[in-house]
Design goal:
335 residues; alpha+beta; 13 helices
Length: 335
C-alpha cells in the first residue's frame, strides 16, 4: 500500500449531452425532506440510468481507474468484510456478473458449466476462469473482485437478531461517511448522524422494508448532496484534501466548482445468504451542465431555499448555499 498523497488530481468527469439528458435528477417537487422513497429498480425506459439494475456509462473507465488508485493508497479502510459474509459475497458475485453479461453483452460475457465459470470483461481486458464458491480460484475475495469491475460502492448487510448489520463493503466513493467506523453497526446506528429523519421514523420504516425484501424484487431510491470539484472520494479520513475546496465557492465560481451529487441506491435480497445488497451508484453534474435544463435549475433553487438548516449543515452545503441560490435566481421565471 502506498502512502496517501497530500493532493489528488481532479477527475475528468465532464458529462456529454447524453449523460446530462439521462442524469438522475432527484427532485420531483420544490422541497425536500427525508423519506424512504423507494421504487422498483432496473425498470427504467431504454437509455435511462435505471434501465438496468447496474448502470454502465461513459465514465466507466475513469471511475475504475480512480477505484484502483484509491485501493492502492488506502486498501485497509476501503475494503472490509467480516468472516460471516462469504456466502453473501458469492451471492453478490453471481448477481453482478449475471446482470452485466445479460444487460451489456457487447462488453461482458459469462459462461457457466456447473461451478466452472468463465468471465470476460472486454472494457478492462479481464479474462478469468474460476470455480464458483472457491475463493482460492479468484485473485481476491468475491466482493472485491467484482466490485473492482462495477461502478458504484457496495455494502452487504447481514440480517440477524431482528436487525440488519453492515458487515462487508467496498467503498471508495463515500459522501462523507466512513466504512471502518460503520462496519458491524446495526442499520439505525449506521444512520445515526442523519438529522430529523430519526424523529420522523424514516429509518425504522426503512429497516422494516429492507427486512421484508424478496429475492428477485430489487428496489432503488435517491439520495443527494453536493460536492465542490469533481471528487467522488469525499471520505472523512481525507477531509483535509477536499474540505477546504468549499472556501473557494462564490458567485463567480459556482458554475464551475459546484456539483449536484446524486446516489442511486439499489436494495436487493441476496438469495443464498439471505443478506441484503445496498449499492450506491454516484452521479455528478456540474452546475453549468445542470442549468442546460432550466426546469431543473428552477426546482433546485426552490429546494435549496426551503431546505431545513439542519439538513444543509449535515450535507455540508451551508457555507455556499446562499451563493448557489443567488446564482440560480435568473432561472426562477415562475415566481
Amino acid at each position: 500500500m502506498t502512502a496517501i498523497t497530500e493532493s489528488r488530481p481532479l477527475l475528468a468527469l465532464k458529462n456529454s449531452q447524453k449523460a446530462i439528458s439521462r442524469f438522475p435528477f432527484p427532485f420531483s417537487g420544490e422541497s425536500y425532506m427525508y423519506s424512504v422513497n423507494v421504487v422498483p429498480a432496473g425498470q427504467g425506459a431504454p437509455g435511462t440510468f435505471d434501465e438496468h439494475l447496474f448502470d454502465i456509462d461513459e465514465h466507466y473507465l475513469t471511475e475504475m481507474a480512480e477505484r484502483e488508485r484509491i485501493l492502492a493508497e488506502d486498501y485497509g479502510r476501503r475494503y472490509l468484510t467480516l468472516p460471516n459474509m462469504m456466502d453473501a459475497q458469492w451471492d453478490f458475485l453471481e448477481m453482478g456478473l449475471t446482470h452485466l453479461a445479460k444487460d451489456y453483452p457487447e462488453h461482458f460475457t459469462l459462461e457457466r458449466s456447473g461451478n466452472n465459470w468463465s468471465w470476460t470483461n472486454k472494457l478492462l481486458g479481464i479474462e478469468k476462469d474460476f470455480i464458483f464458491g472457491d475463493a482460492a480460484t479468484l485473485p481476491s475475495e468475491p466482493l472485491e473482485w467484482v466490485g473492482r469491475q462495477m461502478q458504484g460502492d457496495f455494502c452487504l448487510l447481514d440480517q440477524r437478531e431482528d436487525d440488519l448489520y453492515l458487515d462487508a463493503g467496498l467503498v471508495t466513493f463515500p459522501a462523507d461517511w466512513s466504512l471502518p467506523f460503520d462496519l458491524g453497526m446495526s442499520f439505525e446506528h449506521w444512520h445515526g448522524p442523519v438529522p430529523i429523519a430519526h424523529d420522523l421514523g424514516v429509518f425504522k420504516r426503512a429497516k422494516k422494508f429492507l427486512m421484508n425484501l424478496e429475492v428477485d424484487q430489487p428496489w432503488q431510491r435517491f439520495n443527494w448532496t453536493m460536492t465542490v470539484n469533481p471528487r467522488l472520494d469525499t471520505a472523512p479520513e481525507i477531509y483535509h484534501l477536499w474540505g477546504p475546496d468549499k472556501t473557494l465557492v462564490n458567485i463567480e465560481t459556482v458554475a464551475e466548482l459546484v456539483h449536484l451529487r446524486v446516489e442511486v441506491q439499489v436494495l436487493a435480497r441476496l438469495p443464498r445468504s439471505h443478506g441484503v445488497l445496498f449499492s450506491i451508484r454516484t452521479y455528478m453534474i456540474r452546475m453549468d451542465e445542470l442549468v442546460e435544463n432550466p426546469e431543473w435549475a428552477k426546482r433546485l433553487r426552490r429546494v435549496l431555499v426551503s431546505l431545513a438548516d439542519e439538513i444543509a449543515d449535515y450535507k455540508g452545503i451551508s457555507r455556499y448555499r446562499s451563493a448557489l441560490i443567488e446564482w440560480l435566481t435568473p432561472y426562477e421565471t415562475d415566481k
